[in-house]
From TrEMBL:
Lineage of source species: Bacteria, Pseudomonadati, Pseudomonadota, Alphaproteobacteria, Rhodobacterales
Protein name per its UniProtKB record: Protoheme IX farnesyltransferase
NCBIfam families: cyoE_ctaB, PRK04375.1-2
CDD domains: PT_UbiA_Cox10
Residues spanning the membrane: 27-46, 52-72, 93-115, 121-140, 147-169, 175-196, 217-237, 282-303
Its membrane topology: Multi-pass membrane protein
Alphabetical GO biological process terms: heme O biosynthetic process
Localization: Cell membrane
Reactions performed catalytically: heme b + (2E,6E)-farnesyl diphosphate + H2O = Fe(II)-heme o + diphosphate
Length: 307
């Protein structure tokens, strides 16, 4: 074998970074953060070792979901500009490897979370993996423009899992945390779909921008943003809320609604004229919106701890 052929072979050998990318680390960071908040604001405290184990296994479950999603969506990922450099469509990881990793991590994360905490938390984690990999990825994503509305539940479960890991159950507070992410998800992803423009058209994914057009999508962004605000205020007035969460709800929802109004009032010529800058800014704001809301819950929990 020549040096050139050896180098060519090595070029396609997956690295540790490729396997990490398969687990969708950016999505995992959001899952870990919201699950950690759910665990820390719960009225029952876990031993630090148990808490670390719980977050670790929730993160592994999120990674398993990501690997299964990439395995099944490799065909459309290869078409979309945003995803074509992912490990499978770029040829760095074989589909069979991704499937094996996803299945193995799914089983490991659920079993170990049950052993580290309780069956309720493990059951919620198992259902979340199933919902994301099967209900959303294999069914909803390619069959209905409501894909991201219904499928958003998968990303909303982590704080409930964290809460259940600490308390062994589900409560109004954990449901409100779930609802905040659930209602936040559609405007967040529709803003992405608006400025990515042709990606979903090219891939044949029935995102709302494809099936109903951009004008309708902009109106729906506003509708869901307005509906999100009462959930944020409900969480602020719950037992896990407080003055910091209330202040965050007021400020962030004013900014979010204003951003949605700016999007709703635009036409396609105006959007193209500024390269969809308004939609991009709204998308970035949506990321800050969620992290700051859950950060405010942590701040209020800290205040209660020192009072």
């Amino acid at each position: 074998m020549t040096d050139a052929s050896i180098n060519a072979t090595r070029e396609y050998e997956p690295t540790f970074g490729d396997y990490v990318a398969l687990l969708k680390p950016r999505v995992m960071s959001l899952v870990v953060f919201t699950a950690l908040v759910g665990l820390l604001v719960a009225p029952v405290s876990l031993h630090p070792v148990e808490a670390f184990a719980a977050i670790l296994f929730i993160a592994l479950g999120a990674g398993a979901s990501g690997a299964l999603n990439m395995w099944y969506d490799a065909d459309i990922d290869g078409v979309m500009r945003r995803t074509r450099r992912r490990p499978i469509p770029s040829g760095r990881v074989e589909p069979g490897e991704a499937l094996a990793i996803g299945v193995a991590l799914s089983g490991l994360s659920v079993v170990m979370l049950a052993l580290a905490t309780n069956l309720v938390a493990a059951g919620l984690l198992a259902f979340t993996i199933f919902f994301y990999a099967v209900v959303y990825t294999m069914w909803l994503k390619r069959s209905t423009p409501q894909n991201i509305v219904i499928g958003g539940a998968a990303g909303a479960f982590p704080p409930m899992i964290g809460w259940a890991a600490a308390t062994g159950g589900v409560s109004v507070e954990s449901v409100l945390m779930f609802a905040l992410i659930f209602m936040w998800t559609p405007p967040h992803f529709w803003a992405l779909a608006l400025f990515m423009r042709s990606d979903y058209d090219d891939a044949g994914v029935p995102m709302l921008t494809v099936t109903h057009g951009r004008r309708v999508t902009r109106k729906y962004v506003l509708v869901y943003t307005v509906l999100l605000a009462p959930v944020a205020f409900g969480l602020a007035f719950s037992s896990v809320g407080g003055p910091v969460t209330l202040a965050a709800a007021v400020l962030l929802n004013v900014m979010f609604v204003k951003g949605a109004l700016d999007i709703a009032g635009r036409g396609e010529p105006a959007a193209e004229a500024d390269s969809y800058g308004t939609e991009k800014r709204f998308f970035k704001l949506s990321l800050a919106y969620l992290f700051l809301h859950f950060g405010a819950l942590l701040a209020d929990a800290a205040l209660r701890g020192i009072m």
